[in-house]
Design a protein that fits this description.
The chain has 223 residues and is an alpha/beta fold. The chain is built from 9 helices and 8 strands. It has one domain: Alanine racemase (TIM Barrel). α4 packs across α5. Bound molecules: pyridoxal-5'-phosphate. Keywords: Pyridoxal phosphate.
């Protein structure tokens, strides 16, 4: 009997297949394995299969899990994908290689001063509230240009834009919108697509997909 694909092989295969109609190469897409809530024992098999880019949404949880794993796998790249409180900016800059949560002027200030203090420039994605949802994090479309200008002036390397489309809606129009906003602002990075919609995101230009459940299985509800 043929050996079944691991979840990692399955996701990589799907990314490669989604690239074809879009005439893209799989190497253009960074798969971020979202390991939030999962313990080191669940992360190790992916590391052993060669996955090196991981996403966490809580600074404290990442601080508890990753330093030990990183001593064994020093080339791990860690992305912060969740909302970030300004008072955690310094810890985030110290630990992470990329931050996908830039969404308001106060956070730009906090991250810039943390980067200056630690002498470390961490690339950031600006999160855009593409569905204009009141309860959701992310910068409004109207405020985006100003936020990007402020970030550049403050010396924050802006890698691109990130979004989470509204739940229960067809995501494609929101991915297309994010791609247009990035192009309008001269940005190349597009962090979009999760377990349910990463293939669509790849077809619409994602450079970074953030996949948790499809790699690790269901998560316990976060409190
Ligand atoms: C949890 C999370 C993901 C991963 O979601 P899945 O549906 O499990 O793939 C992606 N992006 C963000 C911002 C998240 O918080």
């Amino acid at each position: 009997m043929e050996k079944a694909d691991t979840p990692l092989e399955e996701v990589r295969g799907r990314i490669a297949r989604a690239c074809k109609p879009a005439r893209r190469e799989p190497e253009e897409i960074t798969l971020i394995a979202v390991s939030k809530t999962h313990p080191a024992e669940a992360i190790l098999p992916l590391l052993e299969q060669g996955q090196r880019v991981f996403g966490e949404n809580r600074v404290q949880e990442a601080q508890a899990k990753w330093p030990a794993l990183r001593t064994r796998f020093p080339d791990v790249e860690l992305h912060l994908i969740g909302q970030l409180q300004s008072n955690k900016a310094e810890d985030a800059v110290a630990l992470f290689d990329c931050i996908h949560a830039l969404d308001r002027p106060s956070l730009v200030k906090a991250l810039a001063s943390a980067m200056n203090k630690l002498g470390k420039r961490v690339p950031c994605f600006a999160q855009v509230n593409v569905g204009e949802e009141e309860q959701k994090g992310g910068c409004s479309i109207a405020d985006l240009s100003a936020l990007l200008a402020q970030s550049r002036e403050a010396g924050i390397p802006v890698a691109g834009l990130m979004c989470i489309p509204p739940a229960g809606m067809e995501p494609a129009p929101f991915f297309a919108l994010l791609a247009k906003l990035a192009a309008d602002n001269g940005l190349l990075g597009l962090s979009m697509g999760m377990s349910g919609d990463y293939e669509t995101a790849v077809m619409l230009g994602a450079t970074h997909v953030r996949v948790g459940t499809a790699l690790f299985g269901e998560r316990p509800a976060q409190t």
